[in-house]
Amino acid sequence: MADDVREPHGSLFRIPNYPAWFGADTFLLCSSAVHWIVISLMAYELSGSVTLAGWFSTIRGITSVVTQVIGGTFVDRHDHRRLLLAQSGICGVLWFVMGVLFATGRLTFALFMVLCLMSSAVYGLLDGTSNAALVTVVGPERYAQAESLNQGRDAAVRMSGSPLGATLYGLWEAAPFFASAFFDAAAFVCSLMLHLPERPEAKNARPGVGAFIRDLIEGWQWVFASKTIMSAVFIMGIFEFGAFAMRQAVNLQLVSSGTDALLISLVNVVSGVATLVGSMVSSRVCDRIPAGRGILGVLAFTALGFVPLLVSSSYATIVANAVLISLPMPLFGALVNGFVFSKTPVERQGRTRAAVMTTVMLFGSGSGAVAGELLPRIGFHGFVLVMLVLVVFAVVLATLNPRIRRIPASPHWSEVEL
Fold this sequence. Notes:
Layout lengths: L1 H5 L11 H30 L2 H27 L3 H24 L5 H18 L2 H10 L4 H29 L3 H18 L7 H4 L5 H17 L1 H30 L4 H25 L5 H16 L8 H12 L2 H14 L6 H17 L1 H34 L1 H4 L13
Helix pairs in contact: 2-3, 2-6, 2-7, 2-8, 3-5, 3-10, 3-16, 4-5, 4-6, 4-8, 7-12, 7-15, 10-16, 11-16, 11-17, 12-14, 12-15, 13-14, 13-15, 13-17
């Protein structure tokens, strides 16, 4: 296994356990993608109220975030394979029950909300499990390459998952839930084939609520004590905020200008294709270039991608911008996440991921509101200028920060401290 893991340019699928891990992680993502667009439609259909449907989505999001905060500690204290089996098994049963109840006419809005909130809680609590296990499967040397592959896979699944879910919903409203149950069952089977080494720190975890809280605090303190992680999180948060806000602004601009809904959806498809292409390029170069310079290059390239929108808001310019912004995204994720998580000890993977992702989510959570407030006041071109300044600020921060600027190529990550 070690030879396969350390071979810098060999196929990841030659690594023992990687095919099973990739299958489990991919099927879990498929399950989420196929019902994602359907959930809101079903909430409105069952409640008959736009207000209730809106609050339903908000409560689901809050549930996921709250459980994610403690989920990292839970993941670090338990066997990863068992948690993958629990996640896929429990969610599969929940979606299957939901499908049966709807097919038999017994699914009420209250019951639907309870089942969905249970699913969201499981998702928040255990969703970091597969990523926490990835370092064990591929080793730190191959983590950046695996992250690049994941980014392209994620784009492909999300790009096809929503249309598939909508199509199934149109054929039979219960079908997306049965499809999600099927994908979770497939993830369960792949998890059964996964063989990970025993983790003594999980086996010997101290029992009790007090010990759990101490572990949670210790993990988050470790993350916040690392100046490199916090620098990366701050820069990544600014980058994510700018990208999400621009996506919201582009959609609002297209809607307000009377653009056809199909053309609006095609922007997202083009963006997904560009991300997929960027992933293929990233998997080939991510372990060959100095990560610090690569991060700077991606940020600078993104800033340049905003420039055409300063003078034109035509559909062609917006599509070109979507391509320019999406292409380098996988490389950015591979270099930033690759460095941070490949350097994080296995026993802290869950808590580090929870702390990093929760912090980044806080940056991006207000992007929609900012876009909605600023666009009517300063116009689309003014908003683009604000986002461009923000991304340039991230470039300057990364350039002036030696902890980011001097990160070497992935084969040399073991020589530097986190």
